[in-house]
Design brief:
By secondary structure, the protein is mainly alpha-helical. About 60% of the residues lie in helices and about 5% in strands. Helix 1 (about 5-20) crosses helix 2 (about 30-35) and helix 1 (about 5-20) crosses helix 3 (about 40-50).
């Protein structure tokens, strides 16, 4: 599995949004600037996030974006699916003949199904709030570093 650039940028932007939008809507331009992402590309990312119901946009002078739910309710699985589609490995092609069927079924059951189950479990357990907290921990730690 490989995360697309769209998914990576979307995760970055959502962490930024979770940190900075507690009391206000955030303009995409400010998210783009803080994260070094093209504003035009970020608009495409947020179009997918809006369609998935993860973020909502408000037009006008006081407009911008907010999360559509509490960060504790938004899972990594929801974000990845909104931006990249299904993250599951495609099923093994199982042939009709008895020899090919056994090989394909073995690969499906012992490799593909197990990987997909683990990926599902992991991505369902990680929330946007977990990502936000980890980012804040890293940011706080890096500010405490002193160089001589």
């Amino acid at each position: 599995m490989k995360f697309s650039k769209k998914c990576r940028y979307g995760l970055r932007a959502l962490i930024d949004l979770a940190v900075n939008s507690e009391n206000d809507h955030i303009v995409l331009g400010s998210i783009a600037k803080r994260n070094g992402i093209s504003p035009q590309y970020l608009e495409q990312v947020f179009a997918s996030l809006r369609r998935a119901g993860i973020a909502k946009g408000i037009k006008g002078s006081q407009g911008g974006y907010r999360l559509n739910a509490d960060p504790k309710e938004i899972t990594a699985a929801m974000i990845v699916e909104a931006l990249d589609g299904s993250y599951r490995i495609e099923d093994e092609e199982i042939l009709d003949d008895s020899h090919g069927y056994g090989i394909g079924a073995s690969i499906q059951e012992l490799v593909i199904d197990r990987i997909n189950d683990q990926m599902d479990q992991l991505l369902q357990e990680i929330t946007l709030d977990d990502l936000r907290k980890r980012y804040l921990d890293h940011r706080e730690y890096s500010q405490d570093m002193y160089y001589i």
